[in-house]
Amino acid sequence: MVKKEKHEAIAIGTPAIIEGDSHEGDLRKRLETIKNHMGVLGYIMRNSTFASIDLDDPTKIMDYALLSSSIVDACEEISKICGLGGIKSIVVEGKNVKMLVVTTNEKAISVFMEKNVDSELLRKILF
Amino acid sequence: MDKELHLFALRNTLNEIRKTYPSIGTSFIFDETGQIMASNASIAEKDITRMAGTFSETMGKASVIGGVDSLTIEGYKATVNISSLNNLYLVTVASENPHNTQMVAVSRILILTVLDLLEKITPTLATGIFPETEAESTSTKTENATTSPQMETLSQQSTQETKPKNGYAAHQFMVESLKGLFIKSDTVHVDNEVLTKWRETSKDKAPEKVEIETFSGKTIQCKVKPIRDSKHAAKGVIQMPERVLNTLEIKKGELVRVKPVTE
User: Is some CB atom of chain A closer than 8 A to the CB atom of B68?
Assistant: First the structure.
């Protein structure tokens, strides 16, 4: 069984690399691919112990992190009420920015992009 | 605005959307405060209220992305979509492919169309305020016609007054057709009480003619007489001969605004 390393720090700009886990390594590569996709503004990956953030505009880190966290919490409650049987993905379309949230292995990955970017394509790249 | 009519129309629209897309199991509309406007849901009302409250709370934090146009949650069993419709939010829970954008788009367009339609129709019906026409803006534009919308019954609306520039009060009446052998084709009949009021306004000179204006902005001037039949006198109706009805292209039961013509 592969042992996971736990990171307590928040990595800003340089996403955390979790060594020794091929799945995590793949995820890291996929996030890099997504980050280089035209119109993608950045991403936040977090679980209960660490967060990895890579955003074009560092001044929006707190706002985006807060929004991402609130959306996930709200959607979990909505999911329970509507009997969705768990969340696969969330897409929030704002007036200026679109946000894709996918949850996997206790992690929530939020990708921020311009409105015209195909979030479904990004979701497919991620999983 | 007639809230009952509003809710009825929205509920029916939700039903129609559900018929068109049977995969939609639940749909409802709530406002920014979390109040449910219309529901076609199998979910308990308190849960819907909780959900609306949770969503509204989160929306406050979404200013960083310019507010929320739509939120789609893809679950393992179903998909929830919440779409912003001006000040309202439409929620659909569907078992179908969450990327069926047509379903969401059609639902959104239908609700928006109905809301738009209600917005255009109900203020007129509920407040008796006519849409402003060119003729109105030059001759009979009222200063306070758009203030204080009221919810009234049809009979109350039909005699509602607006403030005119010439001192006369314009009244709104429901149209009745006037038939008979000795009916003058250029004369309409209105409630004697209204004629008395006009007479008082013009220092005991009773108006001989009135100007009638329809919803569509058509106007005509006719001679006016009091209604003889006391049965109709208090009902806020205007009796019109066929010729006037045809000229104005209106039918019995429609509403018109009537004001006396000053010589």
Answer: yes
Q: Which of A63, A78, A93 sits opposite B80 (nearest CB)?
A: A78
Query: Quick check: A108 and A47 in contact, CB under 8 A?
Result: yes
Mean pLDDT, to the nearest integer, of B208-235? 78
pLDDT digits (tens, 9 = 90+) for B106-160: 888 888 888 878 777 765 443 333 444 333 433 333 344 333 343 333 344 444 4
Starting at the edge strand that comes first in sequence, how are the strands of the sheet with B88-94 ordered?
A: A10-12, A51-55, A40-46, A107-114, A97-104, A87-94, B68-75, B79-85, B88-94, B24-31, B36-40
Residue A92 confidence (pLDDT)? 93
Residue B135 contacts residue B257 (beta carbons within 8 Å): no
The residue in chain A having the minimum alpha-carbon distance to the alpha carbon of residue B56 is A74
pLDDT at A20: 43
Could you report the per-residue pLDDT of A57-83, keeping only the tens digit for each?
888 888 898 898 889 889 999 999 888
- Which helix (H) or strand (E) segment holds residue B48: the answer is helix B45-59
CA dist B140 and A57 (Å) reads: 57
Q: What is the token pair recorded at A86?
A: 């768990």
Paired tokens of B119: 């917005």
Residue B190's nearest CA partner among B141, B256, B126 is B256
Q: Which pTM was predicted? A: 0.57
Q: Which residues of B touch A95 (CB under 8 A)?
A: 65-67, 69
Three-class secondary structure of residue B53 per DSSP: helix
The partner residue sitting opposite A70, judged by closest CB among B61, B78, B79, is B61
Q: Check CB contact under 8 Å for B71 and A81.
A: no
pLDDT (0 to 100) of residue B96: 65
- List residues bridging with B108 in a β-sheet: none
Look at residue A39 in the predicted model and tell me its pLDDT. 92
Whether this model's ipTM surpasses 0.85 comes out as no
Closest CA to A112 of B80, B153, B64: B64
Chain A residues touching B68 at Cβ < 8 A: 92-94
Q: Please report the number of interchain residue pairs, chain A to chain B, with beta-carbon separation below 8 angstroms.
A: 103
Interface of A with B in 72-111 (CB under 8 A): 73-75, 77-79, 81-99
Q: Do A74 and B57 touch (CB under 8 A)?
A: yes
A58 close to A112: Cβ distance less than 8 angstroms: no
